[in-house]
Structure formats: structure tokens, C-alpha cells
Model the fold of this input.
Amino acid sequence: MQTKDCIEKYKKDFEEEIKSLFWTSDGALKKKIYGKVKEEALNEIVNDVFVYDDDLLKSLNLSAAKISVYLETKYKAVDFRSFVAPLSRILLPVAISFMTFFLSAKSLKYFKIEEIFGVTLKTFFAFALSAIVIGMLFSIYYTKVNEKKLYAIYIRDRINFEIERLLIQVKKEV
Done:
């Protein structure tokens, strides 16, 4: 089998393994937003890391090395996500509840936003909505980058396993 065909087979196999291992069906909103993000991350990482060469072992070694470099450079800042994304996921329902509370006519009668916050109702809602949108964008971005890191680690380990398996196979043939 040609090296390129083997690499394409590995890419396809790794994609299927990742989908079966890491993708679960959460709620409908999470599946729509984060499912698409996970799919984009998987496509980007699979198309980005594999190196094609005439020798299969060399291709796999170069791919594993490329992933290791990406993990140390491109995906290094992902650790920040461990604070930001869960925080935004926790604050989103709180913010929606807060907005619902303010939108009810009865509560606005008793709660005077201008006196408490010093801004008009429209300005307050504009700030609140901006904060929610920014939080969601950060959450989506860091989820995508974290998924790339997760997939890269898995693919690197699987490539290393395939390299060892091929080396054992070559030794048996000799």
C-alpha cells in the first residue's frame, strides 16, 4: 500500500476513534454550538498534522514530531481555558436568569436600576448583553482550542503506537 494511502487510512481511523471516544450527545444547545466547534477542531487538527513522505515510518515520525511541537507552541496557551470556559458556562445561566428577572414588568417596578447602577435601563442591558456575548465567544474559542489539544495528544499517542507496531512487524520480517 502506498504511503499516502496508509496516512489517509490512519487519518480516517483516528477520526472515527476520536468521534466514538470523545463525542457524547449532550443537551441540544451544547450539541449545536459545541458539536460544530468540536467537528471543526477535529478537521483542522487531522488536516494540519499529518506529513506525507515516501517512507511510512518517516511520515509517522514527522507527524508525531509536528504534533509535539504544536502542543508546545500552538496549543500552549490553552491552560487558561480551565478557568475561563467553565466560568462562562456557569455564568451564562446566571446571566440569563438575571436578564429574565429584569425583563419582568413587576420586578422593574420595585428595582430601580438607575439608582443602583447609575445608568439607564437601556445602557445596563447593553452592557449585560455585551458581557454575555463576549463570554460565549471566549467559551467557544477556548473549547475549540482545548479540543484541538485533546485530539492532538490522542493522535500523537496513536501514531507512536502505530510506529512501534510497524517496527515490530519489520523486525519479524527480517
In short: The chain has seven helices and no strands. The mean pLDDT is 78. The chain has one domain: 3-173. The longest helix spans residues 121-173.
